[in-house]
Amino acid sequence: MGLVMGLAIGAALGGLLFGYDTAVINGAVESIKHNFVDPRIDLSELERNSLAGQATGIALLGCVFGSIFAGPIATWLGRRVGMLIAAFLFFASSVLSGYPELGLAPIGGMGVDALNPFMVYRFLGGVAIGMASLISPMYIAEIAPPKQRGLLVTFQQLAIVGGMLLVAIVNLQIQRLGGGDETWLHATGWRWMLASCAIPAALFFLAALMMPDTPRWYVLKGKEEKARKLLNELNDADTANATYTEIKDSTTAHSGKLLSFGIGVLVVGVMLSIFQQFVGINAVLYYSNLMFKNIGAGTDSAFLQTVIVMATNVAFTLVATFTVDSWGRKPLLILGAIMMALAMAAMGFMFQSKMEGTMLLAAAIFYIAGFALSWGPVVWVMLSEMFPNSIKGAAMSIAVAAQWISNYVVTWSFLVIDGDSGLNATFNHGFAYYLYAGFSVLAALFVWKFVPETKGKTLEAIEGFWKKS
């Protein structure tokens, strides 16, 4: 079990980087806007807000490409090589995003023109995130003994939210190094925040260097002796032999046509992915500092409250780990959607009414608790269970791509909506939260009407549901 645990932790560093690199932007959003967008006085308000949203969310478009190419890379070159490539991209993109002028001009010498290389480097970071989001859990699932697989695969989700919490703490400490001075933050602090991801990226690269590939990949490539040797190191003799036989049998299985079970299962999976983002989660995870400042918090207070929000995310993800099999998937999704709708409506009202920030923090914690208890981890569980095995690969790719694209739409559009003078004259930054409350209600209704319960059902029984449909 020691070897298995060590390999699982090493692979889960990819999940930690997934969370770290997506959430690091939270501390740098205002500096990016200050340095690269606000000086463009030739642009309209809408154009500036749109450009800021694109700069913030460009990594998410990279995630789409990373998730598309990760599968072929993991098949052709191996899971281990895929993780090494992702780690290298994480490292390079982190350093270069923090210092986009490197090799082009003196640091700080390009002015607004540094935005173009910045966006290229953030896109590459997104490719790394997309690769890690697929390859790390794949690696863990393939090296884990059957009895420990469920527990070990949860490492990935915990590593993701743990990475978000870690970067919130790092951003807070970097901000404090500058004494809370926004001038220092805009000149230097944001660069350190983005470049800090290079440290866990280097650790991930070193870990992957020392790890073997998986037994399944060895069998796929005809390296059967290596597969047997590794299986015997990871399992007892009987389990190793049984697992080897299962791997051999599964590699001869054939894929089915994407729509062989009808379009319903694909639509449900895609809509779950879209709603997971349209409930507004990344408006909170990526823009919480801006959110708290909009209601009057100082810089240090905003960063500290973000740490509290991220810690809540970790705590309730742990709760979901222990409730998803006892409460069921569908009740958790409906409960979480209702909690998020109430919290977002309350947040919109607080902004519109210009209420003080402590109540906003309470509402944000309640919202994050609702998401982390349900739509965060449970959607991934549903996607892994609901697609029949013969179409799972293709269907999962489409659903995950829909998720990343929806994530980008929310990340880009939030700054457009939040920065609109006309909307703010009426709603005082509250309109977006009312919008997410509405999507949360629609998400609850969609689950209630169209999503089957998969708790306690065999994969064959779930497959039968779609055949009947």
Any idea what the shape is? globular
Question: Would you tell me which CATH topology of the largest domain applies?
Answer: Growth Hormone, Chain: A
Mean of residue pLDDT values:
87
Question: Can you tell me the CATH superfamily of the largest domain?
Answer: MFS general substrate transporter like domains
* Major β-sheet profile: none
Write down how many β-strands occur, each being a DSSP E stretch of 2 or more residues. 0
Per CATH, the architecture of the largest domain is Up-down Bundle
Measured between the Cα atoms of the first and last residue, the distance is 42 Å
N-to-C order of helices and strands: HHHHHHHHHHHHHHHHHHHHHH
CATH class of the largest domain: Mainly Alpha
Radius of gyration: 22 Å
Please describe what this structure looks like.
This protein is mostly helical. It folds into 2 domains: 1-213, MFS general substrate transporter like domains (Growth Hormone, Chain: A), CATH 1.20.1250.20; 256-469, MFS general substrate transporter like domains (Growth Hormone, Chain: A), CATH 1.20.1250.20. Helix content is 80%, strand content 0%. The protein is built from 22 helices and no strands. The chain has helices spanning 2-23, 25-37, 45-76, 79-98, 115-143, 149-177, 182-195, 198-210, 215-220, 224-234, 237-250, 264-278, 281-285, 288-294, 299-327, 329-353, 357-373, 375-386, 392-418, 421-427, 431-450, 459-468. Helix 4 (79-98) runs antiparallel to helix 5. The longest helix is centred in the N-terminal third of the chain and has 32 residues, at 45-76. The two termini are 42 Å apart.
